[in-house]
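Hey, can you fold this one?
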Amino acid sequence: MNPVDLQFRARNRPGHRHTVPTGFTLIELLVVIAIIAILAGLLLPALSQAKQKAIGTRCLSNVRQMSLASMLYCGQGRDVYPWTFTAVVGGGGIAWFNYIQPFLQNTNVLLCPTKQQQARRFTSTYIFADDRTVSGYGANFQIGGCSFPAGNWLVQPLKDTGVANPAVTVYLADSGTRAIDTTDPLKCVTLASPEKAQSWVLEDPAGFGGSYVTGDDPNWGGPSVRHGEKSNVGFLDGHATPLKSRQWYYHFTPWLNPALGGESSISAKPRGI
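Sure. Predicted structure:
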């Protein structure tokens, strides 16, 4: 008898156990898929929150670096803060972020990570600076003023001695909202406030450029609450912190007023008007 016949008889003799291939049943596979879906549902929000926190931290670092760069600009024999913007007849010119660039490691800090994708879609309508640099942060107009011959505007930038309370006077912030001119901090800027393509001039909604802040002008705006309902805010002493807009931004806010500073109980009109 050949070996093949012997193997066949051995496999089919009484009492021999047949080995059956094993594997997952359909129900078992469905259970595994359901478990994976539940775990993904639990993990994805946490991952999203971690990503948003990392973006906010990077943005805060940008604001801090730019605030310090502005102080360095002011301190190197100039004794004045950078112009918010200087323009020539016919449009275009130099913005605050151009003045402080020599004191920055690179220009990446000029854009919040959440604005970097939008920057690729900016058109010439939204680009003021002659070197085509853009920014999603706004500098306090009441600090830097402007020279704009086409509008017959001339508001001189302040000296460092012209700021009463640097630690509570806002210089920079995430910006880009169309604000409402109201004394109610809960209504001035909200999550529903329209976002502008680019806003690099920060101003009181009742200030010199208030009509541009509350209008469609893409360059002037209020704070953007793009980091968990907060803006990253830089102060004239160089520190930066995340703040909700209702904490500091409203009609005739002292936080932008260099003669007052935040938390002041004295009301005064913004500089320039």
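The CA atoms of residues 165 and 261 lie 5 Å apart. Let me know if you want another pass with a different chain boundary.
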